[in-house]
Amino acid sequence: MKLQLYVPDGRYQPWIDGFAEALPEAQCLTWEDSKNEQVDYAVVWRPPLEMLRGRTDLKAVFNLGAGVDGILSLRDTDANALPAGVPIVRLDDAGMAAQMIDYVTHAVLRYFRRLDEYALAQQAGTWRFLKPHRRADFTIGVMGVGTLGAQIAKSLAGFGFPVRGWSRTAREVEGVQGFAGEAGQAGFLDGLRVLVNVLPLTPETENILDAGLLGKLAKGAYLVNVARGPHLVEEDLLAAVQSGQVAGAMLDVFRTEPLPADHPFWSEPRITITPHIAALTLREDSIEQIAGKIRALRAGQPIAGVVDLQRGY
Ligand code: OXD
Questions:
Q1: Whether residues 61 and 106 fall in one domain
Q2: How far is the C-alpha of 40 from the C-alpha of 59, rounded, in Å?
Q3: Do 286 and 243 fall within a single domain?
């Protein structure tokens, strides 16, 4: 059995070593060294178009992340970019949910306890008390309650915040008030103090975080984006921050990454940026999960995380 790997940074050895240990029956090859070989499985992150196009040898393509837009968007350039009938499989948590929960909880508690405002006061050399927010008034909305979003929403509810979840089709999450589809969006957004975006990036969700949507949140709301940069209309967020409609934002993802040096987000004190680290792909966990799924496929068993190509996630 052969695996073919593609990672954009070219740091293959730790992956090859990891698969050698977790799946000793497999021969693990880099894409660059095996372009003309027949292999069984591809393991990729943001692969080049020529890697998957027209392939008839692959039994499955494993994505080294939760978001599969880096694979599915290849279809924008070429309608036949993906191997026909081959399942695309995303990472299914693999240690990402815990990281996302840390990140989002940190952001929410920072805003709830007004620590962002105390940080600005410190910079101004000001000692002053701010009235605490009431937990019951601090409603949080999580857009996208799939594998990761549902765990984030549940965890925030555990802190005693009122939490709402929004998804394309209705989903039940314990302790979370559910809203679905376009019809449910206005009710979901109404009065939110913090909006957390965990949506998959699809043509339907691109640019969803625009002036219209931000204007429906409570005045002085906060935005946390841990999904994808193209969800957010960046100039609309800047305008909303400048008008006070949005009091602050914590952003982990951007339209262009790394964020260009002259981007206005760098110098906006109410916007906190991090370099796409909210949930890193954990090598050992990912290898273990993919190896388990390959074994299951070879035994004819079903696996979790197979992407619905129509839906886009
Ligand atoms: C992912 C990511 O999709 O890290 O997993 O962005």
A1: no
A2: 6
A3: no
**pLDDT confidence tier of residue 177, bands split at 50, 70 and 90:** very high
Full domain range(s) for residue 288: 2-94+281-298
Structure tokens at 243: 């008008």
SS3 call for 78: coil
**pLDDT tens digit string along 22-54?**
999 999 999 999 999 999 999 999 999 999 999
Distance CA 51, CA 85 (A): 16
- Do both 43 and 81 map to the same domain? yes
Per-residue pLDDT tens digits for 71-91: 999 999 999 999 999 999 999
Cα of 260 vs centre of ligand 1, distance in Å, is 20
Which atom of ligand 1 is least distant from the CA of 68? 3
Helices 283-298 and 13-22 pack at an angle, to 10 degrees, of 50
One domain for residues 155 and 293: no
Q: Are residues 109 and 121 in the same domain?
A: yes
Assess whether the C-beta atom of 67 lies below 6 angstroms from ligand 1.
yes
Nearest CA to ligand 1 atom 5: 65
Identify whether residues 141 and 181 lie together within a single domain. Answer: yes
User: Looking at ligand 1, which residue's alpha carbon is closest to its atom 3?
Assistant: 67
Q: Is 65 in the pocket of ligand 1 (CB under 6 A)?
A: yes
CA of 63 to the centre of ligand 1 (A): 9
Percent of the chain whose predicted confidence (pLDDT) is above 70: 100
Output the CA–CA distances (angstroms, integers) from residue 64 to 188, 287, 304, in the order listed. 32, 9, 14
Task: Tell me the mean pLDDT in the region 232-261.
Answer: 98
pLDDT of 51 reads: 97
106 part of the active site: no
